[in-house]
Design goal:
With 218 residues, the chain is an alpha/beta fold. The protein has one domain: Alpha-Beta Complex (Spore Coat Polysaccharide Biosynthesis Protein SpsA, Chain A), CATH 3.90.550. It has 9 helices and 7 strands. β5 and β6 form a beta hairpin. The two termini are 18 Å apart. About 5% of the residues have low confidence.
Length: 218
């Protein structure tokens, strides 16, 4: 599972180096592609704390693209798409629109956050321009334990934004603009063309679904 996203990243023109961060790095090195393009390090206890440590490390090479080890359907085209869209903003967040994914996999269950104009699930792809994104990482850290509960994430931006989202008065990018204003950064959602970017592996049935997709059965 880990090899698939690593190889997808290495196959793109916009990624020069892959840093794999895990809580047991010694268990990962032997199963990953070897070479100067892959570096394996120990992570922090959570995703947000790990990214914040990268922001604080002066040796971190910027910009960064963050993805997760369970993004087994990651493809080079998805990576190129978000990298191309991230040039003009501090933080670009990959998302998949519900109707697109439901057309492809009508029985899949995802976490959806609804806005004016559509409902979206995350694609586990985040493009970060520089260490200046630390305030956005802190905002993420404040809701990390609730990342599967969309209303709690939106409520962290402010009660007015929560009401606007619940009533479908605000689009996704309008909510992100408010979040960016709060932390002094520019944030943008990137709606990815391939709906399979919204599939990761959180539980055994996800693993079975991904195996079926790769085998052409789903």
């Amino acid at each position: 599972m880990l090899n698939r996203p690593v190889r997808a990243l290495l196959a793109t023109s916009c990624i020069k180096k892959v840093i794999v961060l895990g809580q047991a790095p010694e268990r990962l090195r032997d199963v990953l592609p070897c070479g100067p393009g892959v570096d394996v390090r120990e992570s922090g206890p959570t995703i947000a704390s790990t990214i914040r440590a990268l922001c604080d490390d002066p040796s971190t090479p910027w910009p960064l693209l963050i993805t997760t080890a369970d993004h087994a359907l990651l493809e080079p085209a998805m990576v190129e798409e978000i990298c191309a869209a991230a040039d003009s903003v501090d933080v670009a967040i990959g998302v998949v629109e519900r109707r697109a994914l439901m057309r492809r996999l009508p029985n899949t269950r995802r976490t959806w956050i609804r806005f004016r104009g559509g409902a979206y699930t995350g694609a586990n792809l985040f493009a970060l321009r520089s260490a200046a994104v630390a305030p956005a990482v802190e905002l993420w850290r404040s809701v990390e334990q609730d990342r599967k509960k969309g209303w709690r994430i939106v409520s962290a931006i402010g009660p007015g934004t929560l009401v606007g989202a619940l009533l479908r008065l605000l689009s996704l990018n309008e909510v992100l603009a408010r979040a960016g204003k709060r932390v002094g950064l520019s944030l943008k959602a990137v709606r990815l063309d391939n709906p399979l970017a919204g599939i990761d592996i959180d539980k055994p049935e996800d693993h079975a679904l991904v195996e079926d997709i790769l085998a052409g059965r789903a």
